[in-house]
Amino acid sequence: MSELDKIDSFASAMLEAASIDELLWTIAINIGEILQFDDCVIYLEEDGVLKQKAAYGIKNAEYGELFNEITIEFGNGIVGAVAKSGVAEIVPNTADDERYIWDEFSGKSELTVPITYEGRTIAVIDTESPYVNGYSEKDKQRLQVIANIAAPRIASAQYCRRLQKAQIELKESNLQLQFTISQLKRNQESLIHSEKMASVGLMVAGIAHEINNPLSFSLSNLTVMKDYYQSIKKMNEEILALDGLPDDVKSIVQLNDYDNIIADMKCIVNETTDGMIRIKNIVADLCGYVRTKDTQKKEYDLNDSVGVAVNLLRGEMNGHCQVDLNLAAIPSLYGNGGKINQVLMNILNNAIQASPNGGMIKVSTYVDSENANIDISDEGTGIMADNICDIFTPFYTTKPVGEGTGLGLFICYKIIKEEHEGDINVVSSNKNGTTFRVTLPLPTCHHVSLKVG
Ligand SMILES: Nc1ncnc2c1ncn2[C@@H]1O[C@H](COP(=O)(O)OP(=O)(O)OP(=O)(O)O)[C@@H](O)[C@H]1O
Ligand SMILES: [Mg+2]
Question: Whose alpha carbon is nearest atom 17 of ligand 1?
């Protein structure tokens, strides 16, 4: 193959190189073969220094593998000097040039040519000979021609690589951004939710307070009415029992269905009283929650609270479902143990009501680095995804009238989130039942000193 043919096939090989590394190895090998040099090393400018990237001859064992990836500063040694000046150099005898850096492959003469693009050194070709005066001016010119042919190709490969790197970085920062946005969204949603719950709580507490007075006098009026009813009944019975009561008086009483009215009146008063008492209990729950807000906090044992709640609800569970306790050692927590019992009872009660016959309710406690946690899982039919966001809202219930007030979880939410700086979450699917997780912060030095003081 003539030298021109070799240069032509070299130019084609450069075009075919898929990556900058492949390109540099192609250049090194072709220079060695076309110019019949014993060795040839290519340095590429990266981050302001020259890095050895490809080699031909004794300085590389195999294609793609370098013995020693040398890095040279601009201005250092002969390679660095040529990179800095942008002018090719022949060193006829390396022993006479103090810039020469000796190594195990040191040659006796050296030819170094810069690869420049748009006035900047982007790479350097360096070749060494085992002979003094191993290179001619013609060798220098031929190597410089090859360097000039390779320059735009190396520059475009470098550009492509930078572009790819930038693309990858952009993709990564995009992902990061998406993650941050979704986290922000979640934070915003939970903030809005907390705000909503706080204002709903205030409103509900206000309403409960307002209902309390009319409710009290309505109930006391009903009690008075019961007495009046007894008196009227007694009075009528006495009148009807009178000797010599005129028949027309007796027939008026019978005509107006006196017996049924009296019986019905009793029912109406009793039912109304029951209804009022139910309202009173709801209001008491709400007011109780508001009133007890300022009760003192102290150390309590979460596992004890679980025990209390389970024991109180044993009757509800009897024969219907079972409970499996898995309690880990938990350090004493700081808060209102009574209210935590109330929370556990509400959640457990819901679990019992949701459980199928023979179902198992699993209660487990455990700690992580910052919190004590309690999971309560049932095997019920779960909560529909669309309804999950409503369950902490006051008066939201799916239970029949008279069975649920829809206040249980609302009160739990308030106690855990607002009074204990904890968290309450639910995981539920229509197949695998429901798990409520209550998270309570482990006590800090502040709490301990409060307790000691
Ligand atoms: N473990 C559970 N499985 C399925 N649904 C549940 C569960 N816990 C709560 N729910 C749903 O959340 C709703 C609200 O619960 P919450 O405890 O606040 O009120 P409730 O149980 O209906 O009434 P109450 O005020 O008597 O507790 C329930 O009506 C029910 O639809
Ligand atoms: Mg409930």
Answer: 408
The model's pLDDT over 43-98, given as tens digits with 9 standing for 90+, comes to: 999 999 999 999 998 766 577 788 778 899 999 999 999 999 999 999 999 999 99
C-alpha span between 345 and 388 (Å, rounded): 20
Domain-wise residue ranges, the chain:
3-166, 201-294, 298-452
Output the ligand 1 site: residues, CB below 6 A: 346, 350-351, 354, 378, 380, 382-383, 391, 396-399, 404-410, 434
pLDDT above 70 for 363: yes
Q: How far is the CA of 391 from the centre of ligand 1 (A)?
A: 7
The residues, any chain, with a CB within 8 Å of residue 12's CB and separated by 6 or more, are none
Q: What is the mean pLDDT of the chain?
A: 87
Ligand 1 atom, smallest distance to 382 CA:
4
- What is the sign, positive or negative, of the torsion defined by CA atoms of 136, 137, 141, 144? positive
The answer to whether 289 and 414 are in contact (CB under 8 A) is yes
Q: Which CATH architecture has domain 3-166?
A: 2-Layer Sandwich (3.30)
- The residue contributing the CA closest to ligand 1 atom 12 is 391
Tens-place pLDDT, residues 228-240: 989 988 988 888 8
Tell me what pLDDT residue 450 has.
40
- Residue nearest ligand 1's atom 10 by CA: 350
| Per-residue confidence (pLDDT) for residue 448, from 0 to 100 | 47
How many angstroms does the Cα of residue 350 sit away from the middle of ligand 2?
A: 5
Tokens of 271: 């039912």
| Domain spanning 298-452, CATH architecture | 2-Layer Sandwich (3.30)
Amino acid at 136: S
